[in-house]
Structure formats: structure tokens, C-alpha cells
Design brief:
Layout: E1 5-8, H1 13-24, E2 30-33, H2 41-51, H3 55-58, H4 66-69, H5 78-87, E3 96-99, E4 102-105, E5 124-125, E6 131-133
């Protein structure tokens, strides 16, 4: 069975849907609740490199101290943005999924389908009622 890790926030619908899609492929991932167990600086830098994005692209604005910290200003360096995410893990957008086929920020949740090593095993509908996978295990 392939090793899959999800950096998860159980309060986030997109994160819950992504976790459910992983499980719908028959895989039980390593679930890291990153607000309780934030990544180290080294791990965060590694995740960014594997996703091929910069720290600014991983910043979450809604429901975070993004505005009060002034993180929208261009004067912040990548290292400073990473420091901010480590001090305030809620600034890290989620969910991040790591599989043998790649690492992605899974927004929307269907992005995870591109990096899962096993096919979907049945129908799947998001929490909001949007169908994603049909009874045949294929995208709708």
C-alpha cells in the first residue's frame, strides 16, 4: 500500500473532502493535523519545493492574521513568509497531500485525484452535495 500523507484541518470542508477521496481509493493516509503539529521549517521548505510553489502561493488569507500582519505587502521575503507560517500555522493553506506520484495543495479537493496511486472504489459526493465520482469509480 502506498504511503500517503495529508496535512489536514478537520474544521475545513475542502480538507475533509480530500481525506474522504483518499479513503475512497482504499488507502488510509497518515493524517497530520497541522494546526496541532505544524511542520518544521525544513519540512515546510521541502513541501513548497515538491509542490513547485513559493511561500506566498501557500498563504491562506481568510480566517487568519494575514491582514493584521500586513502579509500582502511585497516587502516580505520568502524566509519571512515561512517564519510567519511557522509562528501562525493557520496561515498555511490546506490540505497538502504527499503521495508517491506528487505533492499538491488540494484546492479544490479533486486535485488529489491526479496524485492518487489507486483508483476510486465507488461513488463520491462532496459534503455540499456536488458529485465528483460516479458509481463506476470515474470522475463525473
Amino acid at each position: 500500500m502506498a504511503e500517503i500523507t495529508i496535512y489536514h484541518n478537520p474544521a475545513c470542508g475542502t480538507s475533509r473532502n480530500t481525506l474522504a477521496l483518499i479513503r475512497n481509493s482504499g488507502i488510509e493516509p497518515l493524517v497530520i493535523e497541522y494546526l496541532k503539529h505544524p511542520p518544521t521549517r525544513e519540512r515546510l521548505v521541502e513541501l513548497l519545493a515538491r509542490m513547485g510553489i513559493g511561500p506566498r502561493e501557500l498563504l491562506r488569507q481568510k480566517g487568519t492574521p494575514y491582514d493584521e500582519l500586513g502579509l500582502g505587502q511585497d516587502s516580505w521575503t520568502d524566509a519571512q513568509l515561512i517564519d510567519a507560517m511557522l509562528q501562525h500555522p493557520i496561515l498555511i493553506n490546506r490540505p497538502i497531500v504527499v503521495t508517491p506520484l506528487g505533492t499538491r495543495l488540494c484546492r479544490p479537493s479533486e486535485v488529489v485525484l491526479d496524485i492518487l496511486p489507486a483508483p476510486q472504489q465507488g461513488a463520491f459526493t462532496k459534503e455540499d452535495g456536488e458529485p465528483v465520482i460516479g458509481a463506476d469509480g470515474r470522475r463525473v
